[in-house]
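Quick illustration, no need to memorize.
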Amino acid sequence: MLLPDEAATFDFGKQLAARLFPGAVIALDGPLGAGKTRLVQGIAAGVGIDPATVTSPTFTLVQEYPLPPDQQAARGIGKIFHLDAYRVNSPEEFWELGIEEMFASSNWTIIEWASRVRMCLPREYLGVEILHCGKNERKVISTNGWIIF
């Protein structure tokens, strides 16, 4: 799927949020500046979370974004876990973040730089890679065969 600009990346995230189910795990990859965090902002906006509160968890490694109460009831999830594996040095370090509990919950777990911890991911996840295709245009592909749209 081609996304012509940053706004389209955001809108794609909102559309994706409408299709996610409780317990969904999304593994994001792509180079710096590809739009991984912008996509997460769109997903968050799609469930009523202020996208301005969604920032890259590069230094904190994990951010949690609670859904508004009406969305919690409608979606069957309480929050979005947003992780960044860029600075994670080993699978053990990733497990220490509490991902086992995150994966076991009904909440959504979204991991940037997921290829660094692919061996830790659950059996079922949506793999998404965002690639630069020009100054503003991006290409979004599934990395594990799931049909995104």
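The helical segments are 6-17, 36-45, 69-75, 91-95, 99-104.
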